[in-house]
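S1.2 Input.
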Amino acid sequence: MNKELIINAAPTGVEIALLEDKKLVELHHESGNPNFSVGDLYLGKVKKLIPGLNAAFVDVGFEKDAFLHYTDLSPYIRSILKFTAMAISDKTPEGFDFTKFKNEPEIVKTGKITDVLGGKPNILVQILKEPISSKGPRLSCEISLPGRFIVLTPFNDIVAVSKKIHSSEERKRLQKIVEAIKTPNFGVIVRTAAEGKKTAELHEDLTTLVQTWKNIQSNLSGGVAPQKILSEQTKTASILRDLLNESFNRIVVNDKNIFTDTKTYIQKIAPEKSDIVNYYNNGSPIFDNFGITRQVKASFGKTVNLDSGVYLIIEATEALHVIDVNSGYKSSSNNQEQNALASNLEAAAEIARQLRLRDLGGIIIIDFIDMKLPENKKAIFEAMEKFMAQDRAKHTILPISKFGLMQITRQRVKPEITISVAEDCPTCRGTGKIGASMLILEDIEKNLQYLLNHQHKGLTIRTHPILYAYLTKGFLVSKQWKWYFQYKKWIKLRADSNYHLTEYRFFDANDEEIKL
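S1.3 Output.
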């Protein structure tokens, strides 16, 4: 698969588009002040315990307190609390040796939050979900630091290998390497990208993450809650970290600083691919040049049209998203069942893309075109699983029910992307109202008199055909003839269908527009 990353630096922030075979599949926006992003680490202060929910509200500096549930505390929460207190009070420049840190006993899964956070302590937390709608961030104490090939998980010594690496020999090899190079008190999860990598590459990644943990420990020294301790990498760097592989063949950037940073990052993590980074300075907007703007306009909105004429209706409610698949105007055969299957397969591919593109989360209900044969329903289910295999968000897909509905749950970690593809009406400027039609003639005559008083000759008025018809209707009683009798000058009128209903413009004898 051909993957391209197009990065557009704009005054409002950085926009990042991921293309797969020239088709837009992900769109990210990184604002100039990306606070409370997924992965950020904060020193928070427990403000309120809610025994009924077995949860706590934690002040991390957001306008609303963040939510921390008992199930997100991590089994090592007592160790985290102890570490946080020690790091805050520690004043030594180099900090204490974390490899010799003595862990506390793990908590039980069925415990109560009041038993763990009863003193309302300061606590090191990680953003699990960004603020969405009226809700504050959701937090986790299961601290993880992702790298290119591994994920570092402090306070344990567990080594795990991604199940997506199917070769048992390769899994064993990676496990042995990591167990040999890792330091005490750090667990390691080996990512799929580590498959086939050498010990030196894994060790370099591990060393970088251990240094990051030392920076966290240093930043906690003397800290006062609420305080940001460590920011997740920029969207650009995190996308490159998670997505860069052999099929990633081009990165195009229109900003010199981001280009330099991206080039440096690529040279660090994959030096053999450093030449895929290109600087764009072609005059026209970068998103227009790569067809992204057109795809955004076509892909966002309530209705999404597909090539065959099939179209989707996508609507959101407070509780879930609903997608309705409607048959198109083209039929590949006279067999209704085959037409329904073909339409549903095409729709399934687009729905999988839409979920990634809009970053829809929560419960998604899909109403496919009705099919009678069980094997066709199974084919749609298997196709949806295949199409969503590229989706990095955790998701669960259920087979089509007897009501013809497919249910999907997809992880929601940040607000969904909503882009208005409608444009303001040039007549009403988006207000839904225009000036009183009976006053249009008055405005025209006022401007006409002003121009004639300033010795303009050979005037022509261009206007919408309907307004043109109104000004020229009748003989000797039309507005055009009345102007002639009044001003002793013949005012030409021309109809232009490109004008909106109440638009008119004046032109001189040289056919140049007169600005009023």
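S1.4 Remarks. The mean pLDDT is 86.
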